[in-house]
């Protein structure tokens, strides 16, 4: 009984739409265009965001433990008499050698985290000299075999490999921009001056331009080479840690900092400003694409409103022969759902085509071909369909509610 009644109401809705083919086509086209551009814009924005976050996560170790302290250590007096009124005057702070004290224990604790890999390093500054030209270089001493598992330096090299630092005595990897300023290339030798003296370094690798995480004036050498150049044997001042789940980095960093006291920065903390901008970007994106779907729903509202206006006499007859207010609402809401479903299906095809076109575009960036990252996940299709159906139902329900309130007596009396 109920199924037959619903089939009857659905048939009436289809009949109404088929009689107004031009308006129906315009409404369906509006929904299709809205859904198609929703898919294209959201795929572009979400895909680029996911690619950006992935690059942000993998650009450097997930956690960096440095030889810095977030707050200075208390003096001996306050430590000896906690809670007492202690006043110190004329004391001289002892200069301590920078570096991570007890770093093997920190390495062991980091490696004990399931799926984590820790890489020790030493950073410092030297001056490169060649033919009267001088350039400051921040060197980072690393263990190449471990560093390749912790960071993405290897993938950002234009030429050379990290392993070459182990096979070439005095090898150094610098950026293309710095090499251009010095006028050097692969295999060239430059003089490096530091607190440990002057020595020769050979260029064994160049990393690509535009790698902000590496720094235009940064260079990589072997860890023991950095310790010798800087006169700091057996000392490291930084530990990079890569964890299995990047989103657990903040919790692991807090545990290490609480245990050892040294500053442990997660990638979330280092990129807090960028992540907050991404949140604002998401709000703007969904506001824009939702406005597109909202505008498309006005076509449905127009079609159903005109149908109600043209069918007032038919509505009165239907009410007089026993159709309830709910039945009439269902008829016109069904029209909105049909228009929305047809528009969604066409919009899916349009969106798929637009994403295909966007996916074929190449942009030269720093000498490399860059393809636009797109999110083609089913979630976007479902979200577009749900939003369109919701907007279509609401747009159809407003005039349907008005149709259901029609008094058949007044209409038939006026027609007579």
From TrEMBL:
<feature type="transmembrane region" description="Helical">
    <location>
        <begin position="330"/>
        <end position="358"/>
    </location>
</feature>
<dbReference type="InterPro" id="IPR025857">
    <property type="entry name" value="MacB_PCD"/>
</dbReference>
<keyword id="KW-1133">Transmembrane helix</keyword>
<keyword id="KW-0472">Membrane</keyword>
<comment type="similarity">
    <text>Belongs to the ABC-4 integral membrane protein family. LolC/E subfamily.</text>
</comment>
<feature type="domain" description="ABC3 transporter permease C-terminal">
    <location>
        <begin position="288"/>
        <end position="404"/>
    </location>
</feature>
<feature type="domain" description="MacB-like periplasmic core">
    <location>
        <begin position="24"/>
        <end position="258"/>
    </location>
</feature>
<feature type="transmembrane region" description="Helical">
    <location>
        <begin position="283"/>
        <end position="309"/>
    </location>
</feature>
<protein>
    <submittedName>
        <fullName>FtsX-like permease family protein</fullName>
    </submittedName>
</protein>
<keyword id="KW-1003">Cell membrane</keyword>
<dbReference type="InterPro" id="IPR003838">
    <property type="entry name" value="ABC3_permease_C"/>
</dbReference>
<feature type="transmembrane region" description="Helical">
    <location>
        <begin position="378"/>
        <end position="398"/>
    </location>
</feature>
<dbReference type="Pfam" id="PF02687">
    <property type="entry name" value="FtsX"/>
</dbReference>
<keyword id="KW-0812">Transmembrane</keyword>
<feature type="transmembrane region" description="Helical">
    <location>
        <begin position="25"/>
        <end position="46"/>
    </location>
</feature>
<dbReference type="Pfam" id="PF12704">
    <property type="entry name" value="MacB_PCD"/>
</dbReference>
<dbReference type="InterPro" id="IPR051447">
    <property type="entry name" value="Lipoprotein-release_system"/>
</dbReference>
